[in-house]
């Protein structure tokens, strides 16, 4: 019969029990870095965010667009370990005490999807090139690494420092976004200036399409047979069946 996820299984995923959690790019609030200590090749990041209350150890939190796991927690703050890989491809290694970060907890079954599906897996670091007033908000131009340019499309979605944004204009070196007053007020994007590095995560659906087309161009058109074994290898479990 069909495969279903039970509520308990989804709650387990939402608490960080599996790695394929989803976010929406709608920031819940801003946290403040209290410490970022290097320990060998990794780092420990301590963030104060009283609006989160006491979150459980093992929970996932998107920190400026990067999915991290809570290693220690106490009322109003949490600590997470930042791996060498994450330090190498995100802006988290640049954080200092006092810096502000965008925070979002994972999407849960039944929540409204007001932004777009975000995994918290940063694809690369971009650079704010220009910020100019536009109406009651502003317009920002962001330069991106060459390898990400194929994934950015007009009116498509992109997560910048964990914020779901719409591409207002695309050019060879990057893209532009229009920031409304609400976004400027409730996220760290209001402090952008030329030279600010930002975490970028391209739209996951666009990524799949581009990778599929690249595979077709390379001549590999082998189809994937979706079986229970295939689903199990990719993290899906059979929780219950229909009668």
Brief description of this entry?
With 243 residues, this protein is of the alpha+beta class. It is built from 5 helices and 12 strands. Strand 7 (124-134) and strand 8 form a beta hairpin.
Which characteristics define this entry?
243 residues, 5 helices, disordered N terminus
Largest sheet: 6 strands, antiparallel, barrel
pLDDT averaged over residues: 84
Query: What global shape is seen?
Result: globular
Task: Order the strands across the largest sheet as they lie in space.
Answer: 1-2-5-4-3-6
Strand element count: 12
Distance between the termini: 8 Å
* Radius of gyration, whole Å: 19 Å
* Share of helix, binned: 10-25%
Order of helices and strands: HEEEEEHEEEEEEHEHH
| Sequence stretches where pLDDT stays below 50 over 5 or more residues | 1-19
Q: Beta-sheet strand percentage?
A: 25-35%
